[in-house]
Amino acid sequence: MVTRSASFCQTKGVTTESGTTQSGTGAPAGRTSPELVLCALDDAMSHAWRRVADGVRARVRVHRGSVLDVEAHAVVSPANSQGWMRGGIDAIYSRAFPGVEQQVRKAVLNYHGGELPVGQAVAVPTGESRPAWLISAPTMRHPGERLPGNTVHPYLAARAVFEYWRDRELEHGSRARDSIDVIAMPGLGTGVGKVAPENCARQVAAAWDEVFGVRVARA
To answer: Residue 51: how many CA atoms within 13 Å on its side-chain side?
Structure first.
């Protein structure tokens, strides 16, 4: 397991009030969705995520702290279409997982001709046991791109992650849903892209509901 940066993350909790969870080595049989841990470093993103998680969506939690401190099987990289990982959370991933940028770039070149469109995703191994996988889902075409106020890129990126889990196979041939149970997701486009936290959260919620179609009322 990688050594986490204290400045980027705090705890391993995945409850909305910060707790802990025990996860197995992969997804239990019969799961219809992954456990999604929505990570936030600041109040604005945390509050926006809580409105997504509280009471209505099964297996969605909020973690106040770093995505890297969650005991996840996969982390989400809201990268660019070329696969460069030089800024924001992607730069942190590159330092935590040496060689992961080259893995993403190789996958983008081999399977997508050098440009992974917004709305699609690839998964590559991190070289660690936890998280074992990094799911790259671009929120912008070019590095450093500021997204317009009416962008739907967070929705497209989140939907790509969820559909990858549901439908795709990992590089060793196993289904993603059989190897990945817990996915840790930071804000999508909220850093370099300057998407408002509330806008990001609404779009991620819409993508979750579209792909998994489950909203569970509070007991």
So the answer is: 15
Q: What is the mean pLDDT of each run of 10 residues along the chain (219 residues)?
A: 38 34 50 95 97 82 97 97 95 97 96 96 97 98 95 98 97 94 98 96 96 64
CATH assignment at residue 49: 3.40.220.10
Which pTM does this prediction carry?
A: 0.85
Q: Do the domain assignments include residue 126?
A: yes
Q: Give, as one character, the DSSP assignment of residue 24.
A: -
Question: Distance between CA atoms of 39 and 65, rounded to whole angstroms?
Answer: 6
Structural domain harbouring 155: 35-206
Domain count within the chain: 1
Residues 55, 159: Cα–Cα separation, whole Å: 21
Residue 84 lies in a domain: yes
Is 219 within a domain? no
Residue with tokens 């070019």: 142
H or E, element range at 39:
strand 35-40
